[in-house]
Amino acid sequence: MEHLHTLSILVENKPGVLTRVAGLFARRNFNIKSLTVGETEDISISRMTIIVDAEEVPLEQVTKQLNKLINVLKVVEMPPAESVERRLLLLKVRADESCRTAVLQIVDLFRAHVVDVQADTVIVESIGSRQKLEALLASLEPYGVRELAQSGAVAIGRGSKSITDQIKEN
After folding, report:
1. How far apart are CA 168 and CA 24, in angstroms?
2. What are the φ/ψ torsions at residue 42 (nearest 5 degrees)?
3. Domain formed by 4-77, architecture
4. Where is the ACT domain (predicted)?
């Protein structure tokens, strides 16, 4: 059984920080399911969104160790009810004349977008939750998935308070 947790980690935007953070998880033998990094509204700060499969107690220990790393500014767990999480999926699907209409109907049903059309394939872009993207993929698999690329998750807390507000308070 999976015990997925989404962590949002603010770090100084410096070389080597990603290696140190990921290494901490590797040393504890945690599998990182998803990892996304990008600058925040302050270019000197990056935000890592990490989804990890871990039990509650070992995750607390890793969180404490993350907070001790010199370039880590803030670590926050993002519970699903208190945050919005999204991923990006690009999918190349077989869509020749015999099945193109059916493929396009599925794309439309999932509010995805066709971003490239060739004689026998289409490339579909979809943004959404893990469940939505898995359902889209399952619906298109019978037509022949030729290639798939997906991003890790990004997450942000609901409400007016931001994670960057929290580091300013400390």
Report:
1. 25
2. -110, 115
3. 2-Layer Sandwich (3.30)
4. 6-80
Distance from the Cα of residue 97 to its chain's centroid: 34
Q: Are 90 and 113 in contact (CB under 8 A)?
A: no
Residue bearing tokens 């962590």: 7
Instruction: Give, in order, the Cα–Cα distances in Å from 161 to each of 20, 39, 48, 85, 89.
Output: 28, 19, 18, 17, 29
Asked if the model's pLDDT at residue 75 lies above 90, the reply is: yes
Rounded to whole angstroms, the Cα distance separating 129 from 64 reads 28
* pLDDT tens for each residue of 112-169: 999 999 999 999 999 999 999 999 999 999 999 999 999 999 999 999 888 877 676 6
48 within 8 A of 9, measured Cβ to Cβ: yes
Look up residue 116 and give its two tokens. Answer: 């490239």
Per-residue pLDDT at 1 = 74
102 three-class SS: helix
Interstrand relation of 45-53 and 113-117 (parallel, antiparallel or unpaired): unpaired
Domain borders along the chain are: 4-77, 84-154
